[in-house]
Specification:
This protein is 36% helix and 23% strand. The protein is of the alpha/beta class. The protein starts with a strand and ends in an 18-residue tail after the last helix. Bound molecules: fructose -6-phosphate.
Length: 616
């Protein structure tokens, strides 16, 4: 995954492009570059490494041009290097292109172009694009204003794969052409200036009016116009959407890192996600017209997602099952899509994805649609690819999540899915008014309880100080607490690079306990009063073997327990069992964060990871 930015207007382009790239670094950060139109000639500057390297290039500082394109890369084809960094130009240096996505047939295209005498200077899949554009452009005898759009269209006709592309041409120095397919691209409309980016936050400080480009739509931009063309190059009008987020929401707002800011935004994100969905003791999903007849006809519900979003699915599986009495399964999208799953019109398929762009999740959704199932997307990004594919889309309102490690999206997803479970229960008459009322009441105070947890960071910082040099850490829990263990374990490994594993506490005896020896760190999560005795007995077994134990307990569990046996005890407020993962995960997100800080790592951009995995 990569990030792209574009600017066309009257200001100096380079600073705007660099600022946009900095905001898009979560999409990739192994090399970066910009191309600016300088007196009718395209000037390209690029380098290996972070966007900050571009700020050090003197030539970039001197660029005066008002039109430019830029790219921050996360390598897929070709190692991170200056040669492989974007923008790429064609052999005649007439065109410069930045590209986010993957061209699957680039090897064949490259061979075809080489046979025509073209040379290649990088190992990227992208380099075929500017050369194809130049090939079609020079072959076209019609010298009208749409010549460049035609060349781009003829090129995309040859491409198999995904792309969001920006094109500059020194024979048309006052325009820019863009197109997308299966990779995101938005156009921001300014006053006598226009912006392009992979996502809205990158350019939110300049404009609030956006066009969301659909698959195979082309746009030709000048300073004061944006013309849209469909896949057959038929011109059409498009309506701009006005975004209500403010730029502050997409900025660090005084926090040291985005991840910390996003952890602290959880009470707001949960509140916003509940929003107006509960009213007078009833859960409302007006956009879903599910009837009792439809829900009763279902044989099963499938929840499909990746990573943290999949963990959110695990955290609500038993809640959905209990409330709907419909057999519910959770699966990893990359596994699900390749094993001919038993899905038909009697299956409701729910896809959870913060970004709405995860390739495996989208592919799994397409598969379920083909098999006749109804598809429901749970996402945080309005206008994202999945919302255009799914039969229904419901939104978490977590605001932009920039840190690679997901935090507020996870707790918002669980919030929304518990609401959905209650909505199913209402329709199916599976829940009493009283029970529904109690859960809703608890849900409404949940943001305050999360706020309370966020106040006790000193204890967690202290635990992190003792844990950051460890090589391994184990997370244990039973039932719903096991799902938190899974998410907490992922959090610590992805940002602190400590090897960590999560286990259902009862599984320990079946092998893993062999790894427990003096000094090994084990974290136990215990909020389910029905299961706590069992987990405590597992914890005692590992204490006997010399483990250092940290436990996360609800107040109710803590009050009846001899907590002296544990090394560290974190107590969180009581809540309904269905909602407990939303509270118990918070101290463990903080623990992962502070361990990473103790190690001096880049919390927001962990190595080898990108925010959205838009390729397989
Ligand atoms: C981990 C993390 C990832 C994502 C996963 C799915 O902190 O962020 O595991 O949860 O890549 O991403 P989305 O939700 O965008 O589909």
């Amino acid at each position: 995954m990569c990030g792209i930015v574009g600017y066309i207007g009257n200001q100096k382009a380079a600073p705007i492009l660099l600022s946009g790239l900095t905001k898009l670094e979560y999409r990739g950060y192994d090399s970066a570059g910009i191309a600016v139109m300088e007196n009718g000639k395209i000037e390209v500057q690029k380098d290996k490494g972070r966007v900050s390297n571009l700020y050090k290039i003197k030539e970039i500082e001197n660029l005066q041009g008002n039109i430019g394109i830029a790219h921050t890369r996360w390598a897929t084809h070709g190692i991170p290097s200056k040669e492989n960094a974007h923008p790429h130009t064609d052999n005649t240096k007439k065109f410069a292109v930045v590209h986010n996505g993957i061209i699957e047939n680039y090897v064949e295209l490259r061979k075809e172009l080489e046979a025509e005498g073209y040379s290649f200077y990088s190992q990227t899949d992208t380099e075929v694009i500017p050369n194809l554009i130049q090939y079609f452009y020079d072959k076209d005898d019609k010298n009208d204003e749409l010549k460049i759009v035609r060349a781009v269209k003829n090129t995309t006709d040859k491409l198999i794969g995904s792309y969001a592309i920006e094109v500059l041409c020194n024979e048309n120095p006052d325009i820019m052409v863009v197109v997308r397919k299966d990779s995101p691209l938005v156009i921001g409309k300014g006053n006598n200036e226009n912006y392009i980016a992979s996502d809205i936050p990158a350019i939110l400080s300049y404009t609030k009016d956006f066009y969301l480009l659909e698959n195979l739509e082309f746009a030709m931009l000048s300073r004061d116009s944006i013309r849209f063309f469909d896949k057959d190059l038929k011109e059409f009008n498009k309506k701009a959407d006005t975004i209500t987020w403010n730029a502050m929401a997409a900025d660090k707002n005084g926090y040291e890192d985005y991840m910390l800011k996003e952890i602290y935004e959880q009470p707001t994100a949960i509140r916003e996600t509940i929003g107006t969905r509960v009213n007078e003791g009833i859960c409302k999903f007006d956009e879903l017209n599910f009837t009792k007849e439809y829900l009763s006809s279902l044989k099963q519900i499938y929840i499909v997602a990746c990573g943290t979003a999949m963990h959110a699915g695990l955290a609500v599986k038993s809640t959905i099952e209990r409330m709907s009495r419909i057999h519910t399964q959770v699966d990893i999208a990359s596994e699900f899509r390749y094993r001919d799953p038993l899905v038909d019109e009697k299956t409701l398929c729910i896809f959870i994805t913060q970004s709405g762009e995860t390739a495996d999740t989208i592919a799994a959704l397409k598969l379920c649609k083909e098999k006749g199932a109804k598809t429901l997307a749970v996402t945080n990004v309005i206008g994202s690819s999945i919302t255009r594919e799914a039969d229904y889309a419901i939104y978490t309102h977590a605001g932009p999540e920039i840190a690679v490690a997901s935090t507020k999206a996870y707790t918002s997803q669980i919030t929304l899915l518990v609401l959905l479970a209650m909505y199913f229960a209402q329709i199916l008459n599976n829940i009493s008014k009283e029970e529904l009322g109690n859960i809703i009441k608890e849900m409404l105070v949940l943001p305050n309880k999360v706020e309370e947890v966020l106040k006790s960071t000193e204890q967690i910082k202290d635990i992190a100080k003792h844990m950051f040099k460890e090589k391994d850490v184990f997370y244990l829990g039973r039932g719903i607490d096991y799902t938190t263990a899974q998410e907490a374990s992922l959090k610590v490994k992805e940002i602190s690079y400590i090897h960590s594993e999560s286990y259902a506490a009862g599984e320990l005896k079946h092998g893993t306990i062999a790894l427990i020896e003096k000094g090994v760190n084990v974290i136990g999560i215990m909020t389910d009063t029905n299961l706590v005795k069992k987990t405590v007995s597992n914890m005692e077994e590992i204490i006997t073997r010399g483990a250092i134990t940290t436990v996360v307990l609800s107040e109710e569990v803590a009050k009846d327990l001899n907590t002296d046996i544990f090394t560290n005890v974190i107590v969180v407020p009581n809540t309904e069992i269905y909602l407990s993962p939303i509270i118990t995960v918070v101290p463990l997100q903080l623990l992962a964060y502070y361990i990473s800080k103790e190690k001096g790592l880049d919390v927001d951009k962990p190595r080898n990871l990108a925010k959205s995995v838009t390729v397989e």
